[in-house]
Amino acid sequence: MTRVLLLLVLIACATAAGAQTREQWIEWGERVHGGFGTLYRIPLAVMPRMAEWNKTLDAPGRYDAVMAAEALYTVE
After folding, report:
1. Whose CB among 34, 53, 60, 66 lies 3.0–4.6 Å from 38's, allowing a Cys bridge?
2. Residue extents of the structural domains in the chain
3. Would you call 72 helix, strand, or coil by DSSP?
4. H or E element: which one contains 64?
5. Ordered per-residue pLDDT tens for the chain, 76 residues
């Protein structure tokens, strides 16, 4: 019985996820990312810092380093 209930819940979730329209995705992208014309660039000067983070930090440490970094990217 538990497996049947779990299967029904998973099917319901999958059906709801597929119900979003193209227009809803575009609206979400504009709201979250400022539109699809927005371009994010990582300056070359930041790359050595990022390489060092990848070598020396674990995943939580890399997350903290990125969140604390200044001038990590530019928005065009």
Report:
1. 34
2. 1-36, 39-76
3. coil
4. helix 59-68
5. 677 666 666 676 655 555 578 788 777 777 776 666 777 889 999 999 999 999 999 998 999 999 999 988 888 7
